[in-house]
Amino acid sequence: MRAAPGFLTEREGRFLALLAAAAPARGDVLEIGTFKGKSIVGLAAVARRQGLPPIVTVDPHTAPSQTDPDLEGQASSWDAFQATLAGAALSTFVEAHRGYSRDLARDWRRPIRLLWIDGDHTYAGTSEDFTLFGPHLAPGGIVAMHDVLHGYDGPVRVFVENVLASDDFGPAGVCGSIGWAQYRPGDGASHRRERADLARRASRLVPLVRKGRPPTGLKRLLYQLLRATVPHAAPDPAEWAARVVYLDHA
Predict the structure, then answer these.
(1) N or C: where does the chain have the smaller number of CB atoms within 10 Å of the terminal CB?
(2) In a domain, 114, yes or no
(3) pLDDT in tens, 65-111
(4) Any idea what the Cα angle at residue 187 is, between residues 183 and 189, rounded to 5°?
């Protein structure tokens, strides 16, 4: 993953690989937002190591994009994505869809064990991705959203308003800028206090990013101060795995 172009930090990459390896559910791993393939390298490497089905990824690979600033003046990120996969010898462990996530959703009928949302960071875009694919989460599966703590309005609002506020989800947290929660329709309510505390801290960021752009000036300083109050250290893998053990009560 270090060699692949992209915006995922090493801490986030390691955590994402942990999600793919240890999410206690049956189903596919679906990535929304491929860019040049940095995160898919980690996910596909886990699939190869553990004998899992190919990782599904979807991206229109258009340019320029609000969240893909390096593409300005370029026609597409598709060729760079293909080169990343080939260089890592992981092409056979990826099911790539070149198109919009809403188009893939029309015929999607498969359970999802890890839903990795890292596409359109606007509120409308993030909300649509969660609304379309969230109902396919398998009990015990994980939803994760990138850039919850990076100044975009979509990820943090959807994470706070749709995930942390719902008793369909149990354990939740943030690692780096990845907000995550486990789909626990059987006993999510028992984790309500944990989610509410995280929501209280993260919701303070929402008014500062509602215009869809990272804050500037004094608002940027306030954003940084409030972001520091949201726990986002990398978890111990064994402790994390113990938190998400789940028996489907449905």
Answers:
(1) C
(2) yes
(3) 554 555 455 567 888 888 888 888 999 999 999 999 999 999 999 99
(4) 95
